[in-house]
Amino acid sequence: MESALAKQVYDKLLSVYGPQKCFLEHMTPFQLLVATILSAQCTDKRVNMVTRDLFQRWPDAEAFANCGREELEQAIFTCGFYRAKADHILKAAKAIVEQFHGELPDTMEGLLKLPGVGRKTANVVLGDALDKPGFPVDTHVRRLSALIGLSGSSDPEVIESDICAVMPPETWAQFSHLLIVHGRTRCPANRPDCPGCELAKLCRHTKADKPVGKKAKASASKKTAKAPVRKTAKPATKKTVAKKAASPARSAKKSTSKSGTRS
Ligand code: SF4
After folding, report:
1. Which of 12, 17, 48, 157 has the lowest tally of Cβ within 10 angstroms?
2. Is the pLDDT of residue 212 over 90?
3. Averaged confidence pLDDT in the chain
């Protein structure tokens, strides 16, 4: 991928939306871990509604490790997939208490050791709570990376490495936020507003209709082959000029005889 494209997209989005903050409310890195687990297949708005009460009841890993499964399931029910999410939260909280002395690991390797924590969640926590480089690839980042041409892959891990290879680490978390906000506002999956889009001049998707290179030549020759052949007028000869000059009289004669018959 061209690093110039990624930088231009980043600069443009930053100028349009300004610096973005983490969309999930939290007070500690552990709370952000819980909120990110809850956010799978759920809106940030809903998660924030749920976690306001949740973190009052159970503020840290130790409190979650000792809470009742059923109580937790009930508390997070409205986020969907509540059984699996409760399971991940409980297992992660217990692992933090038992293996990491109650402290959330602060590296990708450490975070990935926690049950139910994948690269996306780990990157969110690194970038937004631990002030470390992290580029989370969620559904918007994945979709926009393909549309804009930031990565040729649909694999989140490859997208992450493609973009991180060309962007400075201090921009990673912000770039992910900017792509998410653009995906939510200007470029939703079912109705991207390409004519009004600030990235239209940079986005590969808007250029997709215009064939380039060999395709363009092939398409041009196809058009030529299909184009209707115009009949060129034959040059006038002395004979045709004379015929034309005589024809009004002949037509008049014809028309007189026809109208007579009719009447
Ligand atoms: S130009 Fe269209 S496809 Fe590309 S980012 Fe903008 S809205 Fe999305």
Report:
1. 157
2. no
3. 85
Q: Which two tokens stand for residue 74?
A: 């009930």
- Cα–Cα distance for residue pair 24/124, rounded to 1 Å: 10
CA 148, CA 33: separation in Å to the nearest integer?
29
In this model, does residue 211 exceed pLDDT 70? no
Confidence category of residue 206, pLDDT binned at 50, 70, 90: confident
Angle at 211 between CA 208 and CA 216, to 5 degrees: 180
The CA dihedral of 65, 70, 71, 76, to the nearest 10 degrees, is 90
Going from the Cα of 21 to the center of ligand 1, the distance in angstroms, rounded, reads: 22
| Cα–ligand 1 centroid distance for 190 (angstroms) | 11
Class of domain 23-128 (CATH, top level): mainly alpha
Per-residue model confidence as pLDDT tens digits over 134-190: 999 999 999 999 999 999 999 999 999 999 999 999 999 999 999 999 999 999 999
* Residue ranges per structural domain of the chain: 1-21+134-212, 23-128
DSSP string of 43-65?
Answer: -HHHHHHHHHHHHHH--SHHHHH
pLDDT one-digit tens code per residue, 90-110: 999 999 999 999 999 999 999
The tokens for 170 are 């201090």
CATH 3.90.320.10 fits 1-21+134-212, yes or no: no
Q: Is 131 in the pocket of ligand 1 (CB under 6 A)?
A: no
Q: Determine the Cα–Cα distance for residues 239 and 48; give it in Å rounded to an integer.
A: 92
Ligand 1 atom closest to the Cα of residue 182 is: 5
